Automatic annotation (TrEMBL):
Encoding gene per record: LOC115980683
Keywords: Transferase
InterPro entries from the UniProt entry: P-loop_NTPase, Sulfotransferase_dom
Name of the protein: Sulfotransferase
Positions of the Sulfotransferase domain: 70-338
Principal EC category: transferase
Lineage of source species: Eukaryota, Viridiplantae, Streptophyta, Embryophyta, Tracheophyta
Amino acid sequence: MNHGSKSNGAEEYKSDPKTSNKLEEIMSTVPKRKGAWLMFNDLYLYERFWCSSFQLEGILRAQDHFKPQPNDVILSSTPKSGTTWLKALAFAITTRSCVDESTNPLLTRLAHDCVPFLEFKLHSSPQKLNLDVPVVATHIPYTSLPKSIINSGCKIVYICRDPKDAFVSLWQFHHRVRPKGEEVSAWEDLPLEDAFEFFCEGFTPGGPYWDHLLGYWRASLESPEKILFLKYENLKKKTEYWIKKMAQFMGYPLSLEEEDKGVVQKIIDLCSFENLSNLEVNKSGKARLDVGIGVNTFEFKNNTYFRKGKVGDWKNYLTPEMATRLDQITEQKLNGSGLTLHVLPNA
């Protein structure tokens, strides 16, 4: 299945009566709240997670139509937890033997073009990629993944992040994305304090944040051969180790010869925040998010995805009281799960 050129995500799927009817039924029966994040008008509580109408539509289309191949790799995460970096690394790992380093598509394309989302229509120009890349990404919670993925032999790589940094990054992203057309006049600012309350109570796209993590964490304990659970902070600290671990897990192990030739370091350099954020495509290029019912297209600069990429940047935005509260929620939510997150002290 040529994911790279065909973008085997929601953009391939045509709405069918079954999916449309299911969508209407769900939207009319599940709990609904007025949205505040990004382009979302209302958020719906579907299978214990909040999602917009267009997210829900994408999830249902994926559940009804997505047919993975046994060698496919699914990259999963909550929004703003290292998705762009994970996509770049996975793409570089899987294509290293078929592209020249001087002409790697990551040098001229947004990582989200190289590795499409399963449930979103996110793309920029040029859209076509003539490579057979069996990698696709998603923000869908584990419990809502298509059964075709759960029952297949494909691998899942999940990345999580300190909730404090994830929250700040999500809030910053909200202020850097703007809709086109009529939606602009209706755009409302979201104060940090309000966004923080929403996040703490789990009212975020794909939230509650901790439930999203725990779904994949518990599944990784049950099926470690199918799910690799990564922590953003570990990936930053021991990048070489985790790249080799990812490559092995995904079915693209690095040979001793490749290691001797410095292939790992080349992947690190290519996908580094410093390199990607300074590429012309990511400084001046634009991406488009075509969303579903009743919401206009969103267009934003590719540099929206490259803010700082640092661990602990939350200290520049959160008060010590806010940080303590999030840490306490994290400890309470993860208690007994065996999962611990790397959190920096408030001081």
